């Protein structure tokens, strides 16, 4: 069983995907981390994010990036990840890793932007998790401060809007709700409410499969 969880930045899709993985006993992949790892590699070791060839070359170093590196979540790395993820060459370099994970015999939960549309179009259940940009910016600022990183609400809101615009309007695998995905707007939900709603939606899909 594959569960696809997509949505814009800081909508809570990662929190929900991890909870679904625990609930259904499935492995989880945060696919945004792959794009962030490419971005971090360019940020640290050089490479022009405006150059597709250099970004594709940086994909080779993804496995060497420590998933616990706090810099992966920095705003600088987020902005580069959003830019390089628009390159078709980068997306195809990272495609098999994600499809392979989704095809594991145990099943899987993956979260990202194009899981329900491109990576796992035949997933058993698909959620499109969203929240207003203002709520997402507040959540991201809180998260950054908790991690001891600087986070200014106005800057974060501008960044979230810019990422939404880029992710939704790029040619290659844009962020969009799959036609068979359930929409979950968490703007007025706390984490526990959002997780409970997600589990209900997935269980309803599985019951009708
Ligand atoms: N319903 C909610 N209410 C309040 N805070 C939430 C809610 N869902 C998630 N959060 C918090 O918001 C922050 C962002 O959540 P999360 O990392 O799950 O979002 P995301 O969509 O996966 O983000 P990204 O796309 O940047 O990886 C986290 O600090 C998380 O604890
Ligand atoms: N399936 C995906 C996942 C992520 N991206 C891009 O990576 C950036 C970082 O992702 P987060 O989920 O960690 O915020 C994001 O802004 C996307 O541009 C993607 O394109 N496809």
From TrEMBL:
CDD domains the UniProt entry points to: CMPK
Catalytic activity, EC: 2.7.4.25
Family according to the record: Belongs to the cytidylate kinase family. Type 1 subfamily.
Enzyme class: transferase
Cellular compartment(s): Cytoplasm
Keywords: ATP-binding, Cytoplasm, Kinase, Nucleotide-binding, Transferase
Record domain Cytidylate kinase: where: 3-203
Signal peptide positions (record): none
Catalytic activity: CMP + ATP = CDP + ADP; dCMP + ATP = dCDP + ADP
Organism: Sphingomonas brevis
Gene giving rise to this polypeptide: cmk
Molecular-function annotations in GO: kinase activity
Amino-acid positions noted as binding ATP in the UniProt annotation, renumbered to this chain: 7-15
SUPFAM superfamilies reported for this sequence: P-loop containing nucleoside triphosphate hydrolases
Protein name, per record: Cytidylate kinase
Pfam families: Cytidylate_kin
């Amino acid at each position: 069983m594959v569960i696809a969880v997509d949505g814009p930045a800081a909508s809570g899709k990662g929190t929900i995907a991890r909870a679904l993985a625990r609930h259904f006993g499935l492995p989880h992949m945060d696919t945004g981390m792959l794009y962030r790892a490419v971005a971090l590699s360019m940020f640290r070791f050089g490479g022009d994010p405006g150059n597709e060839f250099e970004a594709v070359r940086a994909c080779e170093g993804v496995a060497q990036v420590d998933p616990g590196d706090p810099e992966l979540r920095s705003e600088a790395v987020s902005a580069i990840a959003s830019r390089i993820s628009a390159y078709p060459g980068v997306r195809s370099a990272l495609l098999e890793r994600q499809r392979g994970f989704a095809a594991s015999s145990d099943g899987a939960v993956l979260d990202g932007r194009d899981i329900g549309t491109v990576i796992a179009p035949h997933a058993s259940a698909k959620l499109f998790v969203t929240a207003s940009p203002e709520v997402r910016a507040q959540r991201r600022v809180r998260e950054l401060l908790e991690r001891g990183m600087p986070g200014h609400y106005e800057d974060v809101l501008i960044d979230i809007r810019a990422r939404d615009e880029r992710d939704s309007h790029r040619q290659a695998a844009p962020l969009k709700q799959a036609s068979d995905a359930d929409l979950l707007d968490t703007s007025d939900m706390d984490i526990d409410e959002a997780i409970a709603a997600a589990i209900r939606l997935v269980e309803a899909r599985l019951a009708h499969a």
